[in-house]
Design a protein that fits this description.
The complex is a heterodimer of chains A (229) and B (379). Chain A is α/β, with parallel strands linked by helices and 229 residues long. Chain A has 7 helices and 10 strands. Helix content of chain A is 34%, strand content 28%. Classes of the chains: A alpha/beta (229), B alpha+beta (379).
Chain lengths: 229, 379
Amino acid sequence: MANIIELKNINKIYGTVVKTQVLHDVSLNIETGSFNAIIGQSGSGKSTLLNILGTLDQPTSGEILINGIPTSKMKVPQLAALRNETLGFIFQFHYLLPEFTALENVLMPVRIKGEKVTPEVLKKAHDLMDLVGLSKVKNNLATQMSGGQQQRTAIARSLMNDPKIILADEPTGNLDSDTTEQVYELMRKINKTFNTTFLIITHDRKVAEKTDRIIEIKDGRIVLDVVKN
Amino acid sequence: MKVAFTIAKRFLTYSKGQTLAIMLGIAIGVSVQIFIGLLITGLQTGLIDKTVGNSAHIIVTQVDDEAFSVTQSGFKPVDDFTSISYAVDGALVVRVGDTSASALLRSADEGALAIYDYEEKLTAGRLPQTDDEVILGNLLAEELGVDVGDTVTLQTFTNETREVTVTGVFDLSVAAINERWMVGTPSGAQSLFGLGNNVTSIEIQVKDVFAADALALTLKDELRSGYSVVDWKSQNESLLSGLNGQSISSLMIQIFVLISVVLGIASVLAITVLQKSKQIGILKAMGINDTKASLIFLFQGLILGIFGALLGVALGVGLLVSFTTFARNPDGTALIPITFDVPFILFSAGVALVSAMVASLIPANRTRKLSPIEVIRNG
């Protein structure tokens, strides 16, 4: 299967006076439609890797190809469009806009894209809310929902523009085990239904074991890369 | 564009207290500007009106003070003149029985009636209609002990005499005038002084009182030689420099109010960027581009500016209305006559709007530079 993401010799060094190298020469290929877990201890560099993958952060050296196109050659507005249309983010702290309702948060990527909220778009948002099981709290402000509900809203939001890739940084990090299970099942369902590529950072071994591929990072290097059959 | 506006609107409505506080800040700035601006303008207009409202702005005489023919002088009315009086003046003595007083007989043609507003200033009786009728200043009437209907004798310095009837008494609010002026018809004055159709001066009121000096210069060029043209400005220089000083200080107050409003808005919006940096980070992670992200704060500035300015206009006008309602002279007239100068009010509102927009440029620029990773990394 074709690689949707290719990382070539990525190095990331923070600081100019005191230099800390977080990623050492990381190369990684992610296949289209695959369901991957990145595991590692805190400070191992996994979040940095994900942020670089998501074009939120730039590597110190090395190349990232998304859909075969090197991101280093893209200008700022093109990167913004890439994040809006091709990538979907789910963060540990869900990061909803507290000023907006759950449904409005889900619709935000469409609005940012500059498209009108047509009845079809609205239906899609409602369907996604139903998919993540939030039919009843659609019109609640983000602050009036539980952590699990917020996280599921963030998942629905990440799916709104039909991204090819979803990058999730500990999406179940602060959820209880039942909710974790629900969120995992949901992501799996989306992966199967839409052939969306998933890259999930997790601390949770149980979650990791359910994925197709486990990539372990230690001290900025890939130390384990297991693909399940 | 639309998404930026929607977000800006929502940010503002979400923190209502803060939004109201900023709007109030802008509004107070605008209202102070409107209030001070219009108050000073009203004060000045009032002063100028009191000084030149009921007097000639430009006076044409012959250099040797002799009477002259209007046609021969080369005088031509222009549109900038609102009232022109072809005046006939002469000093004389008024007698009633044993009492006598020196007086100045002035003619009242249409122009003079407009300039001095005699009809309005009459405290008794009516305006003179025939050559045998006059009206007197109230102090002169008092001095002579005459009233409406009495007959007085006028005697010129060339010993011409005429008996005239007093048809009215006026009060022009200036003691020097009230104790010396008497007013009759132009033909009456001309025949008494033996001037034929000649006049002693041409008195002019102009549309724009501050253009009087320039108009006087033009007029002097058009007249034949031997004529003197005097304007009110050259005779009231100290008043004008006082007014000028007042205008400058009023302008300074307005500028400083404006600066404080701009700084206030800019600092509050800068804090808002910090408050909303997480949201901006999320939006940028979701792919909002830098231009749209910075537009959010420009729109906030615009919305705050519009509502702040509207509120300020309402406040300012309210202040002025209550000022004119409560600050009154004993006779019930407004202490300071204030005109609601709509262009000035709109200008103040416009300035506030532009200031709010300018103030929002700083946070907008900070937003442009904000990197989503800073927010994501710092949680």
